[in-house]
Amino acid sequence: MAELLDAPVATTPLGKGAIDEAHPLAAGVMSAYTGGEMGRGRIANGVIRDADVVLLVGTKTGNVATSNWTLPDPSCRTVHVDVDVAEIGRNYRSLGVLGDAKLRLAALAAGLEAAGARPATGRRADLARDLSDWRARIRPLAESSARPIRPERVLAEMARFVDDDTIVCADASYSSLWAADRLVLRRPGRRLISARGFGGIGWALPAGIGAKLAAPDKRVLCLTGDGAFGFVFQELETAARYGIGVVVVVLNNSTFAYQKHAEQLHYGRSFETELLDVDYAALARVLRCDGISVSDPDQLASALGTAIASGRPTVINVVIDPEAFPRSPPSTSSGPARPSRSPTDLRLPRGVPMNALRQTSSRTAPRRASRPHHAVHRHRRVRRGGVSPQRRLHIFNPALEHRYEHALEAMDLGELRQLHAALSPLRRFFSEVDAPVTLKAAQDLVGLAGGPVRLPMSPMTAEQRRRLRDILVDLGTKVVD
Ligand SMILES: Cc1ncc(C[n+]2csc(CCOP(=O)(O)OP(=O)(O)O)c2C)c(N)n1
Ligand SMILES: [Mg+2]
């Protein structure tokens, strides 16, 4: 069907492998996680963002895959093919096609063909150009000789060993983000298994052992962080005891890095996220497996080759750069720049005409340079005072929002810390009126489209309302009826 229409195909992280990822119409893995500055997912996200119609196939349209329900844009027309009726229309108002994806796609393709559908021209060329631009952009990192080793280089080396029969088990945290974005699965099929959903760390090794037992003839590679591996490395003894030949690549940055970055992002600092530089290859040998430690990127290929050829359970401990991560903000599911679907229950100052607000729609427009003010549209919910429930307010703060977007895009933690600090007068104020707010709530209040917020407010005095208004005005928040 994609070929019939010349329509690019993006997959979700869990849908990776639904099509040959080297196909000229394969746009890669869309998501909040893969769409960072250097991600191939940026191409996939762009394809979905720019589409006028999106065909959703067998997807639960979760927050990660859809970048918090901004991709596709909710105003974009969608057709949703799914075997589960509950999925259709759950997050996107779609034209539903209930049934088995394979059968329904075949029927749709036949219908389109009969209706004389012709391929759009130029889509393949656009994708090819985007892909080659992206390759050129990441080449310095993918080929980097830096020490400590860049994870982009590890993934590039690993990708060479991922053939059509390889199963890759990627742990939660950055490992699964790297794997989803950088490995190219040719033969369609689900061969990247990752701990999405709950994202519990310590997953890759047990999953790899299970995969190898289920498919002994397949090559099984596990990709894990050092912190995650610390949860489960004792299972190496199990692998040795049963002779289960999994190869575990440990991206060892001596850090719970994702956790560290998430804490810095949300709280401005992190706690207990540094680890010692443990050599997990030595540990593997103690647990009766093989172990190879690599700190020179040029030895990655031979280490992988040796481990795979041996057929023995082997750990490759790769000393990677602790400052390197896939440039997209960790845990965007709770990050500051995201839409909200829950009501904001909040009483705000008179004058700035905000009383109790219910957020009915939010920032759903995709990030485009040409996008107008991302005003947050809110319906006023009357509590008292007889204000029309139909009245709409727009609260926005383009200057701060611009800075936030930029800082998130670049993962500029210093700038994010400063932005968080800028919100502290607001948070102090709410503490004083005995209604402490979270950072996210404060972001929402100043006109950044924050996540779900519920603020139980005690009534404010006129003086308090005035102070709150001054703080908001100082922060550059604009409120328009
Ligand atoms: C069971 C469980 N505990 C805690 C977390 C929270 N968490 C998410 S990522 C992460 C850090 C993982 O560190 P590591 O495995 O070294 O990977 P890195 O981020 O350094 O690549 C933690 C603690 C989780 N997802 N699952
Ligand atoms: Mg780590």
Tags for this model:
3 domains, binds magnesium ion, 481 residues, six-stranded parallel β-sheet, single chain, alpha/beta, 17 helices, globular
In brief:
The protein has 481 residues and is of the alpha/beta class. It is built from 17 helices and 15 strands.
Give a structural overview:
The protein is of the alpha/beta class and 481 residues long. The protein has 3 domains: 127 residues, Rossmann fold (3-Layer(aba) Sandwich), CATH 3.40.50.1220; 177 residues, Rossmann fold, CATH 3.40.50; 112 residues, no CATH class. It is built from 17 helices and 15 strands. The strands form 4 sheets. Strands 7-6-8-9-11-10 form a 6-stranded parallel beta sheet, with helices on both faces. Strands 12-13-14-15 form a 4-stranded antiparallel beta sheet, with no helix packed on it. Helix 6 links the parallel strand 6 and strand 7. The protein binds thiamine diphosphate and magnesium ion (MG). Magnesium ion binds next to helix 8.
Topology:
Layout (H helix, E strand, L loop, with lengths): L1 H4 L3 E3 L14 E4 L11 H10 L2 E5 L19 E6 L12 E4 L2 H14 L8 H20 L8 H9 L6 E5 L3 H9 L9 E3 L9 H11 L4 E7 H7 L2 H8 L4 E6 L4 H11 L12 H7 L3 E5 L5 H11 L3 E6 L36 E4 L16 E6 L10 E5 L1 H13 L2 H10 L1 H9 L6 H7 L16 H13 L3 E3 L1
Parallel strand pairs: 1-2, 3-4, 4-5, 6-7, 6-8, 8-9, 9-11, 10-11
Antiparallel strand pairs: 12-13, 13-14, 14-15
Bound molecules: thiamine diphosphate (TPP) and magnesium ion.
The site of magnesium ion has 7 residues, from helix 8.
